[in-house]
Protein 1
Amino acid sequence: MLMTEHTGKCLLKAHGVPVPAGVLIRKSGHVQRWSGAYPVALKAQVLSGGRGKAGGIVRASDPGQAEAAAQQLFEREFGGESPASLLMERWVEHSRELYLAVTVDGQSGGYVILYAPSGGVDVEHQAPYKYTFGSPRDFRAHELRSMLAEVEPDGALRERIVALARRLLFVATAIDAVTVEINPLAVLPDGKLLALDAKIVRDESAAFRQADLADEIERARKREPRMVAKALAGNLMMVGLDGEVGLMSGGAGMTMATMDMIADAGLKPACFLDCSSNPTPAGYQLAFDVLDAEPKVKAILVSIFGGGTQIDRVAKVMNEIMMKRKSRKPVVFRMNGTGREKADAVMRDAGLHNHPTLESAVDAVVAAARTQ
Amino acid sequence: MSVLIDAASRALIYGIAGNFGRFSARDLASYGTKVVAGVAPGRDTRDVEGVPVFQDARTACTTTGADVALVYVPAPAALDAVLEVLDAGCKVIVYPGDGLPVQDAVELRAAAWRHRAVLIGPNTPGVISPGKSKLGFMPSFCYIPGPLAVISRSGSLSYEAGWRLTMAGLGQSTVIGIGGDPVKGLNAAEAIELLHADSETKAILYLGEIGGSDEYAVARYAERPDAKPTAALIVGASAPPGKKMGHAAALVGSQADSQAAKVEALRKAGVHVADNLRNLVDTAQHAFRQCEVVTS
C-alpha cells in the first residue's frame, strides 16, 4: 500500500530520518496554520506519480501567495485524483539532489539499495546503481561504500549516504515496507542530507503485526465503491471493473484467465472476484448478494477449478443459494477440480447445468448477458 | 529421477492435525507419496490417518527419515514453522499459504539457500511429478506422466492447464507452482534451470501473469541456444493498471508489467505464446513438436 508523502515523512521522522518542517492543510483557508518562515512549498498529497511535472508543487513567498496556491491546488486533479490535503513545508535551498531507495527486488528475492547521483523528477531516465544483498542481515556497509566510491568522490557525503541507507533499511524492516524511496534527497549547503519527498509502500500482508497499517487498509476499503467495499469486508478479493459479466471465480490466475476469455468474446467482466480467500457458504452468498445488487451486472459466471477447495462442497452451497435466490439474472456454472464427480451429481440432482469446459461456459454467459 | 521430489521422497506434513493437514495426509498417500511423519506442536494428537505425529520437526525427521515437507500454518506462524523444518534437515519444502509478509519471504529464501534446500512458495499448490510423487494439494486427476514440464505462478490456472494437457494426452514430467507472491522461494529462473537439467523434461510450458519480472527470466532462458522448446500463457490482458489482481505481485505498475509487453518479449525470444486458454494445448503441442524435430 502506497502511503502519501505526508504519512511517509511522519514514518521517516519517527525513525530519525531528517525531513523538512511542515504542516498538513486540509482546506485552503488553513494556510494560516503555518507559523514558520517563508518561502514555503505547497505540495498536493496524491498517490499518482508525476506530481512534480504536473505542477503539483508550488513555491509561495508570502501568506497571500500561499493562499492562492492552495486554492488552485485543491481545485486541480492529478492523474484523476483530487488532493484531499496539501503538505505545507519550509522551502529548502539546496545545492544538489540525490536519489536513494531501499526496495524489495523480486528477481533477486531480497532487498536492494538503489542510488542515483542526480535525483529529482527525471531520475527514471538513468538506471540507478544497485546494491543487492538479500536478507537485511546480509547488508554490509562496506560493500555499499565501495559501490558508491565509483560515483561519489566526496568521502564525507558518501558516509552520510551509507548511514542513511542503513537507516532506511531499518525503517523498511521495522514498518514492513517493501519500498522506502527518497527522491529528491537534498544535499544542504552544510553537507547534511534532508528528505524532500518520501515514497513508502507498505506490505499489506504484514497488517497482522502493524496496527497502523491495518487501520490504513480499513480506511482505504471504506473509500471503495459500495460493491467492492462489501466484498472486501467479507474477505473476498474484489476489484471493480466496468463490464456486464459478473465473474465469480477461485484463484487469481484462473480469474484473470477467465476475464481475458470474456474480453476476447467481446464483452467485459464487471469485476475481478476471487472467492478462494473465503470459500465458505457465507462467502459465496455474499458474492451473489454483491453481484445481484449491482445493476450493471447482466449475467453471472461461476467458474471454479478447485484444488484445496473441494468442489462438491461448493456445488452443494451453490444449490442452496440458487434455491433461496430472488434475483433473476442468469447464472452459468463451470466447476471442476477436487471432488468433481460428486459435484456433477449434486448439480444434476439440483437441476443445474455444469458446463464441461470453460469455453462453453464463457460462450453461454456472454450470450446470456447480451440478451438481457 | 524427476526434479525436486520422486518416488523415494519421504514427506512430513507440518500442521497435520488441521483440516488441510488431514486432507493431504489421505490425498498424498492415495497418490503414492510416502507420508512418514506429521508435526502438530502443542496438540496431543498421536496419529493422523496412520501417520505418526510429533511435537517438533527435528524429532519427526530423525525418527522417520522425512526429507521433504509440506507446511500448513497460517502466515503469522509461517516464518518459524518453515525455519523449523529447514533446521530439521528437510531439503524440499512447500509452503502453500498466502498473505506471508514479504520480509518473511526474504528471510525464508535466504535461510533455504543457507541450508542448500529449496522452498516452493509461498502461495502455491506445491509440486507434482505425475505418477511418482506429489507434495501439495493440486487435484491429482489433472495430471499424467509425460515429457512436458509446467511452471505456474497461479495454482488454479495450473490445474486448468494440467487438465487440458492431460485430456489431450500431453503428459507432464513435473508441474511446479512457484506462487503468486513477489518474493518466492523458487522463482521462474531457478525453476527453469532445474527443468533444463532434467532428462525427463523435453519441453517447458510457463503460465505467467501481469506484474513482476519472472516472464522476462523465461524470455532470457528461451534466447539461449541450448534452451528446451518453451511455450507460455500470460493472463491479465484485461486487468486495469494500478489494481492488484488477487496475487500480491499481479499488478500493472509500469509498461513492463503489462501482459502485452511480456507476450512481446517472450515471442521475440522464440517462445510459443497462447492467445488465451482456448489455444493453450495447441500452443504447447507446437512447442513439443519443435523438440521432436530437434531430437530426431
Protein 2
Amino acid sequence: MRQHDIVIIGGGPAGLSAAAAARKAGVQDILILERDGVLGGILNQCIHNGFGLHTFKEELTGPEYASRYIDMVEEEKIPYKLNTIVVDVNKNREVTYINKEEGLVTIQAGAVILAMGCRERPRGALNTPGYRPAGIYSAGTAQRLMNIEGYCVGKEVVILGSGDIGLIMARRMTLEGAKVKVVAELMPYSGGLKRNIVQCLDDYGIPLKLSHTIINIEGKERLTGITLAEVDANRNPIPGTEEHYSCDALLLSVGLIPENELSKGAGVSMNRITSGPNVDDCLETEVEGIYACGNVLHVHDLVDFVSQEAALAGENAAAYVKEGQNRKKSHKVALAAENGVRYTVPQVLNVDTMKDTVTVRFRVADVYKERYIAVYYDDKLISRKKKKVLAPGEMEQVVLKKSSFEGYPEIKQIKICTEVE
Amino acid sequence: METRNLICIGCPLGCPVTVTMDGDDINVTGNTCPRGADYAKKEVLSPTRIVTSSIRVKDGAIARVSVKTKSDIPKSKIFEVMKEIQAVQVDAPVALGQVLIKDCAGTGVEIIATKTVERV
C-alpha cells in the first residue's frame, strides 16, 4: 500500500491552509485529495468581497483569497489530485479514493486531515408543501450557476432563509437585473452577518421579513409563485397573514450541514450541536491521528477563521507525524457550553500540552443584548467580558491562556456561558 | 446636531457605530478599529461601495470571469457600472488582476479580473 505522511481530504480553504502549515512545520510528504476540477473549493464562486481582512489585512474577493493559498501550495510543490473523490477513511488511517486515471486506490496515511467542508440544507429538509417545479435552488447552487456557469437563474426572485449566501445572492441577482421581492426568515432574527443585511438588502431596498415562512409553492412545470405567512412563537403559520408573491425563482438559504459521512465511517465521535467531530485543542478527533478543520468541523462565518483553524490542524498533524507514539497527552479537561452558549470547539483541552494560547470558538443560542461572556474553571470565575450584542449568526470566541491554569492543577471542567448580570 | 446609527461594513464583525454630526464636526463612537471611523464618516458624507460581478469570457475554461471595481465607487453609480460590465465580453486567457475596463462609467475606476481563466 502506498504511504503518505499527511493526507488532506478537501482542497478548499481549510485543506489548502492545513497543507501550507504542515509543510511549514517540516513535513515533506503531503497529499491533497480534491473532488472538484480545481482547487479553492467554494471560494471560487464567492465572487463578492470581504475576505481576508484578518489574514492579509486587505479586502479580497473569494477567488483572490483562494489564489493566495493555491499559490502557496503550488510554490511549495505540495502534490494534489483533482477530480478525485474519497470514498472511505478508516480508523487505521487508510484512505480509499477513486479517480479516472487510477481507479480505486487505498493509501496509508500517517495522519489524516478532514477538510471536506459543508453542504446546503435542501428543500427536502424543510417540509414545504406544494409542487416541485423548476426554479427552486439552494442559494449556493444559484450562485454557482450565475457566477461560474453564466446562467440567469430567474427574473423575479423570492429568497427563503437569511443565511449569508442568501443575502449575498439577493444583491447579486439585483445587480444582474432581477427583482428580488422579499427575503423571508422563519426565525425572529437573521441568520446572516449584520454587514450583509446592510450592504445586500438595505442598500437595494429589499425587504427582510422576520418570523415568516413559505406555506405554499405554486407552478407545475416552472415556478409561478409562493405564499408567505407570518409565524407565531412556535413557528406555526398564523391564519390570515398569507401574502402571495409571483416569482420564477426561489432560493433557499436555510443552513449549512458539515459533510461528515467520511468522518463517521472512520469512527470519530460526532457532536450533536455542530454536526462535526468532537476535537481537542490540537483539533484531533477521538481517533488518533485524524484531525478536522474548517466547515466540516463546525460552520464558520469567516474564511479567515477557517484558515487559522486549518493551519493549527496542519501544524498538529505535522507534530503527530514526527513524534508519533512519543507524544504525550494527559490531563484532558472537558469544555462545557452552558446558559446560552450552544457549543464550543474544541470540546476538550489538554491542559499540560496546550499551546500558550488556545482559541475557543462558539455560538450563542439566541439574540442577547448587554450580556457577559463568562469563563469558569470548575466553580471559579476566570474572566467576564460584556458584549453589546450576541447573535447565533455571529461566531464568538474566547482565548484561554496556558498561564491561567497554573493555580488549577486539579481542574475538571472549563465552563463557558453567558450571564445577564 | 444629528445622530445616525450605522452598522460598519468594513469587515464581517459588523460593529454598531453611532455618528454624531454637528456642522462640520463629525464624531464616531462604537467602532473597534480606525476603519470603522473612516467608514462611518464616509457613509454620512458620500457613501461608496466596491462592486463585484462577472464578465462573459470567450473560449475560457469557465463561462465567466469574476471581476471587481479596483477601488470603491459612489453608491449612486452602482447600476451604471453594472451596465458597462454587462455589455463587455473578453477573450480568454484572463489573468488575475488584469484590467478589463479602464474607466468604468466615468468613475475613473478600473474593472479588474479577480481570477485567472485559462483558454481552452
